[in-house]
Amino acid sequence: MTNNDHVKSKTDRAGKTSDPAVTAALVSRRGAIMAAAITAVLGLVGAIVVALINTGSQPAKGAEAQGSPSTSGSSSQPASGTQPQEDKPAEGVPEQVKIDAGTGADLDGSRVAPVSTTGPNGDIDLFYDGGNLTSNRSGLFYYYGTEQEAKVACPKIVSEGKDVVPGPEVISTGGKHCLRTSKGTVGWIGVNDVKIDDNSGYIVLNYKLFR
């Protein structure tokens, strides 16, 4: 190779490396690569941020079960193992009143207590004279069923009017009757205790009114 050729080769290499078009292309290519890299990094950062936000807004696992019940109908269901309560008929412990000899009682009253009287008059439903129990307007009826059956049986017996006690009745402990009060309310009475004596006698009655 001659000196001229050597110089020409250097000149050609220098011309290639200093060509403005080549330089611009290289710069443009590098810029595109950098822009793509920046876009990818920003996209990754954005995805991470969105994932963190979504994770923070969701309840922790099991929180729904421990928190408030959903509104999809579960709130209207009773707790597991709990049976809904039902209204019970008036078949519990009956009321009780003690009627001393020469006194009577108004079972329709809000506060039943013996009052001194001469008989089952006016609002007085039952009167005890120390030996006999009498009722207002023939309101006692013979009954031979149980206390539990009285709620159904007594209204039928009273409405039929077939088993009326005709007058004063000597009643012993354990005796039972259906009853119609002075206001027409049907009931049941059972003798819990009795003492026959004109002066110190008394009768203790259990009773229920079926309003």
Would you kindly provide a written description of the structure presented here, covering whatever features stand out?
There is one protein chain. With 211 residues, the protein is of the alpha+beta class. 32% of the residues lie in helices and 20% in strands. It has four helices and nine strands, in the order αααββββββαβββ. The strands form two sheets. A five-stranded antiparallel beta sheet has the order 1-9-8-7-6, with helices on one face. Strands 3-2-4-5 form a four-stranded antiparallel beta sheet, with no helix packed on it. Strand 4 and strand 5 form a beta hairpin. It is rod-shaped and about 130 Å long. 19% of the residues are buried.
Major β-sheet, in short?
Answer: 5 strands, antiparallel
> Can you count the beta strands?
9
State the secondary-structure class: alpha+beta
Q: Give the overall form.
A: rod-shaped
User: How large is the count of helical segments?
Assistant: 4
Helix fraction, binned, reads: 25-40%
Radius of gyration: 51 Å
SSE order in H/E notation? HHHEEEEEEHEEE
